[in-house]
Design a protein that fits this description.
2 strands; single chain; alpha+beta
């Protein structure tokens, strides 16, 4: 987003998008090697000025389309915050 709009405008857009959010949660899903994802979530919470929280949950088997949509949003958020 920064490359497209410039740093100042990108920060304003992100602030507006996140204005009603107060927490960022890392969800333990029971899969192995979650350390890199936990670290990413902690860093994102710091960068976005959100309270970091950890939760223990499991996805139902098989995952529903709703769960897959949520994962898609989370992956997109990861891509946006890394750029």
């Amino acid at each position: 987003m920064e490359a497209r709009y410039g740093r100042h405008r990108a920060e304003r857009v992100m602030d507006r998008m996140l204005q009603h959010y107060t927490h960022l949660a890392f969800i333990h899903t029971g899969t192995r090697n979650q350390a890199p994802y936990r670290r990413f979530a902690q860093e994102a919470a710091d960068r976005l000025h959100l309270t970091y929280k950890e939760m223990v949950e499991t996805l139902p088997r098989p995952a529903t389309q709703e769960h897959l949509n949520l994962l898609e949003v989370l992956v997109h958020l990861e891509t946006v915050t890394r750029s």
